[in-house]
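A reminder from the course coordinator: this example appears on the midterm review sheet, so study it carefully.

Given structure:
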């Protein structure tokens, strides 16, 4: 029996929230997980139209959590989503281990905790010596024993620049328990070689970009959506762009609008690319009021090194703050009008106020 792939749409790789370093639940320099904030952020995203969540991915600092903490985060978010009325809400659990047994163990624990899919990072420790045939063997061994369908996670920047060829994706796509991939690199040509490959069944194997700044181009070549960090800050904005692109043919005349929104998203995404989980947590805290700006675990830097860094992104973040608010009111046209410097100043003030709450 062939496993079901992820539904098309926009997903968020959520950060893992930790209690303040000086809080009662903090373990010195290693802060404890903040399950209440974790669930609140997840519910906010679900209410804003996000299709599902990747928990314990790169943004979620998976390698900084113990297996016990992994289970706690997954099970708590699952339980609170259901209590909020989001039954069977898609949850994808990330893994970042190097050996087959540990990967399978994490997938088994994740399924028991409520996840329906696994997102399996390529084993990059021996990247210079790993052949494509070896990668096929590794993923096949994991998929053969995984209790739930898995996706291939290709993020060279965090896996020793390991390369997974388009031919390897084609080969693995035929496995009944491998249902898609997340491509977290900027190579549109490689996206195309997988998403447009006629030898891949795209009903059972779906391609997702890990970069929201590529959403417009990748959807035109057949990708199924995005698993995007910025959508964890501005969910309505990214979902709205997705809906514009994938809507009826009547939306073709709105290509100019799509390009304008894509530009705003791409400009803000540059902060995520530069700072990774640190940038995501900074933005989630300042814009949405969830968690602390310095809420990472070592060895990640605790927040931006100085306030000037955030100020450098105020213009781009400000445009999305206003667009997000407009979409929540149902007004999706006014944000496409030209902006004034006064608006940027007002939005910057709004961000500052949110951060002080």
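Designed residues:
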């Amino acid at each position: 029996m062939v496993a079901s792939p992820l539904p098309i749409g926009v997903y968020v790789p959520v950060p893992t929230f930790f209690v303040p370093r000086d809080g009662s639940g903090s373990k010195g320099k290693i802060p404890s997980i903040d399950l209440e904030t974790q669930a609140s952020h997840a519910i906010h995203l679900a209410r804003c139209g996000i299709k599902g969540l990747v928990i314990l991915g790169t943004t979620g600092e998976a390698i900084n959590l113990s297996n016990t903490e992994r289970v706690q985060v997954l099970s708590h978010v699952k339980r609170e989503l259901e209590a909020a009325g989001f039954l069977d809400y898609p949850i994808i659990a990330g893994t970042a281990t190097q050996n087959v047994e540990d990967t399978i163990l994490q997938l088994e624990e994740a399924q028991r905790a409520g996840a329906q899919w696994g997102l399996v990072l390529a084993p990059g420790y021996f990247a210079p010596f790993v052949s494509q045939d070896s990668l096929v063997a590794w993923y096949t061994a994991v998929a053969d024993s995984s209790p739930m369908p898995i996706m291939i996670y290709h993020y060279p920047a965090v896996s020793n620049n390991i390369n997974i060829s388009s031919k390897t994706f084609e080969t693995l796509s035929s496995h009944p328990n491998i249902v898609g991939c997340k491509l977290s690199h900027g190579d549109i040509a490689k996206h195309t070689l997988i998403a447009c490959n006629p030898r891949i069944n795209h009903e059972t194997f779906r391609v997702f970009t890990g970069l929201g700044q590529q959403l417009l181009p990748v959807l035109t070549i057949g990708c199924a959506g995005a698993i995007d960090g910025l959508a964890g800050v501005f969910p309505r904005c990214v979902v709205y762009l997705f809906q514009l692109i994938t809507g009826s043919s009547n939306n073709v005349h709105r290509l100019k609008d799509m390009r304008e929104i894509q530009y705003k998203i791409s400009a803000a995404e540059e902060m995520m690319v530069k700072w990774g989980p640190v940038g995501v947590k900074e933005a989630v805290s300042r814009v949405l009021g969830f968690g602390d700006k310095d809420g990472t675990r070592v060895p990640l830097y605790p927040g931006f090194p100085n306030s000037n860094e955030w100020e450098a992104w105020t213009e781009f973040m400000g445009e999305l703050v206003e667009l997000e608010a407009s979409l929540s009111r149902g007004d999706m046209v006014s944000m496409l009008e030209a902006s004034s410097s006064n608006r940027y100043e007002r939005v910057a003030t709004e961000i500052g106020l949110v951060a002080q709450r």
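The two ends are 51 Å apart (CA to CA). Residues 92 and 117 are 5 Å apart (CA to CA).
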